[in-house]
Design brief:
Elements (H helix, E strand, L loop, with lengths): L1 E7 L6 E7 L4 H5 E4 L3 E7 L5 H10 L4 H11 L2 H4 L2 E7 L4 E5 L8 E5 L2 E5 L6 H11 L6 H14 L9 E7 L10 E5 L5 H12 L3 H9 L15
Antiparallel strand pairs: 1-2, 1-8, 2-9, 3-4, 4-5, 5-6, 7-8, 9-10
Length: 230
């Protein structure tokens, strides 16, 4: 029902996830990021509790492979078999795990700085297309690269059926930001990845202004809206 791209920007240190699915509101359950820590996904038959659990383990200093090994080991076998998990940490180290009960055609691609995983795919090559597109232009912003990965996967065949939701979450390398610097969601749409790209084009130029307003409201940019008299 889902495929995702989790990536790290070596130039800025940012970490993020872009994800799409035939299910509604996929990013609300499946995409998790934490500033200064990493970005993770919990998908297939999703247990949202596993997202914060993976980030907590990363924050304690565990390496991504160890996070997944330890998490899988303590989960009930009958449940963890349905899960698909990915991690990219603050250093760009990646890992993935797919249980035996993952749905349909499923696969994962793990490379330095990017990990792609999916289920109910049209073919496993969809994921290679996503990883290749993410790696194509390292000078681009992380959000642009993540969306490029989703878009390339769709062109390569995407899911076996249509997708209806998408989302993207990005965390800064600085743990001072206790929230995602970008958190965009398309909960139901006939072309959710294209709609996500449209939202990114609106949000991206304003991202730094909203960070400034959160941390230094007295000196941050004005809103430029009716009623703002600063």
């Amino acid at each position: 029902m889902t495929f995702s791209v989790a990536g790290h920007c070596a130039r800025t240190g940012a970490m993020g996830v872009a994800i799409t699915s035939s299910s509604p509101a996929v990013a609300a359950r499946c995409a998790w990021v934490r500033g200064g820590v990493g970005a993770v996904t919990t998908q297939n038959v999703t247990d949202p509790r596993l997202g914060p659990a993976m980030l907590d383990a990363l924050e304690r200093g565990a390496e991504p492979d160890a996070v997944l090994r330890d998490l899988v080991a303590v989960q009930p076998e009958a449940k963890i078999a349905w899960r698909q998990l990915t991690i990219v940490d603050r250093n760009g180290t990646t890992a993935a795990w797919t249980g035996q009960q993952a749905l349909g055609v499923h696969a994962q691609v793990v490379r330095p700085g990017v990990v792609v995983a999916g289920n109910l795919l049209s073919s496993p090559s969809v994921l290679d297309a996503a990883a290749d597109a993410f790696e194509d232009d390292p000078s681009a912003t992380l959000g642009t690269r993540l969306i490029a990965g989703l878009s390339a996967a769709l062109v390569a065949g995407g899911e076996a059926g249509p997708v209806h939701s998408a989302g993207m979450a990005i965390a800064d390398r600085d743990p001072i930001y206790g929230w995602p610097v970008t958190d965009l969601r398309v909960d139901w749409h006939e072309a959710p990845v294209a709609e996500l790209e449209r939202l990114w084009a609106i949000w991206q130029p304003q991202e730094q202004a909203y960070l400034s307003r959160a941390l230094e409201p007295d000196s941050s940019p004005s809103y430029g809206v009716p009623g703002d008299v600063r």
